Amino acid sequence: MARRKKVYEGKAKILYEGPEPGTLIQYFKDDGTPTPVDPAPVTVDGKGVLNNRLSEFFMAGLNAIGVPTHFIRRINMREQLVRMVEIIPLEVVVRNFAAGDISQRLGIPEGTPLPRPIVEYYFKDDKLGTPLVSEEHIVAFGWANQQDLDDIVALALRVNDFLSGVMMGVGVRLADFRIEVGRIWEGDFMRLIVADEISPDSCRLWDLRQPERPDGSVPDPAPLADSYTELARRLGVLPSNVTHTTKPTLIN
Fold first, then answer.
1. How many of the other CB atoms lie within 10 Å of CB of 69?
2. Looking at the structure, do residues 66 and 147 belong to the same domain, yes or no?
3. Is the pTM of this model over 0.85?
4. DSSP-based three-state secondary structure for 10
5. Do 52 and 91 lie in a common domain?
6. Residue 226 resides in a domain
7. Do residues 120 and 203 both lie within one domain?
8. Which of 69, 87, 89, 128 is deepest in the core (most CB within 10 A)?
9. Has residue 162 been placed in a domain?
10. Strand, coil or helix: 13
11. What is the pLDDT of residues 189-246, one digit of tens each?
């Protein structure tokens, strides 16, 4: 079997050249994504298999409702065939509830519903700590133009509507999530599509199925325990013989 050429390796995935021009093979690793709270890398057995299945579920669902993504098909337990895109160097974060970084920056109590979904941008540079940036920075430095930003917001909000509905249907509240967006060209026409992955690595998930207290009241949602396995189980995409327990990776 010919050795595949590695194109890129990140914290959680490896990209290889695809079998056809304009395609890549995306391999999901078991390595965990470091967070500001826990920056040490961690390996979680089976996480790559689950994230492959979960990202396939979400990306295929978005494709089906007309939200374009880079996903083509799943190849095996750990790999997907995806379209090659030019990644815009931004993490696009959509927040439905105050949590993490926005609570710290603005003094909003964790768990507070936001007046409407808020879209934020973070510049993708690990050495700089992926800093929060404004639309003015993005346009001034040429990472995207104003039309791109308008399209990104529209795309992100459509993803939010889809994910929020799917999660609510299985008793999970989507507090916030991040996506990456890439450019593709079809002849002279350029359009933006959802790229990278959608998985518990990129979502903050709260469990709505909390047992009642002795007094009959229901406690506030808590982080979804063992988010990879539990979410895959609730969505009906849990592969056989994959079990582990880990904490979810949170957005800043």
1. 25
2. no
3. yes
4. coil
5. no
6. no
7. yes
8. 69
9. yes
10. strand
11. 999 999 999 999 999 999 999 877 777 676 788 898 889 999 999 999 987 655 444 4
Total domain count, the chain: 2
192 within some domain: yes
φ, ψ of residue 225 to 5 degrees: the values are -65, 145
Other beta carbons less than 10 A from residue 161's beta carbon: 13
Shared domain check, 127 and 93 = yes
User: Which range marks the domain in which residue 46 is found?
Assistant: 6-85
Q: Which residue has the tokens 């396995």?
A: 229
E-state strands within 68-164: 71-74, 79-83, 86-87, 90-97, 113-123, 132-133
Q: Is 62:162 a contact under the CB 8 Å cutoff?
A: yes
Length of the chain: 252
The per-type count for the chain, helices as H runs and strands as E runs, is 5, 13
Q: What is the pLDDT of residues 150-197, one digit of tens each?
A: 999 999 999 999 999 999 999 999 999 999 999 999 888 999 999 999
| CA distances, 27 to each of 65, 76, 136, 235 (Å) | 25, 10, 35, 22
